[in-house]
Amino acid sequence: MTVDSWVLEAIASSGAKGATVREVQRYIDERHFEELSIDTIEASVAKLLAEGRITQEGDRYHPAKRTSKEDALKKLFGDT
Which domains, ranges and CATH numbers included, belong to the chain? Predict the structure, then answer.
C-alpha cells in the first residue's frame, strides 16, 4: 500500500467525526506498524485534497462524497 491509500483508509475509518493529521498518524502506526512523519502525512493529505478525494472541515478531514454513476456520466459528457 502507498501512503496515500493508508491516509485514505485512516480517514475513512474515522467515521462521521473525521480525522486530524495526528489521528491519521496514530492509525497508520497502530494498524500498519509504520511511523510516518507529520510532514509526509500532510503532503499526502494536500495531494488528496487537490484530487478531491477528501474534504476538510476545520482541522478534520473526511472522505469525499461518492459520485453516482449517473452524475459521473453527466459530468463526463457535459450534460447538466
Answer: 3-77 (1.10.10.10)
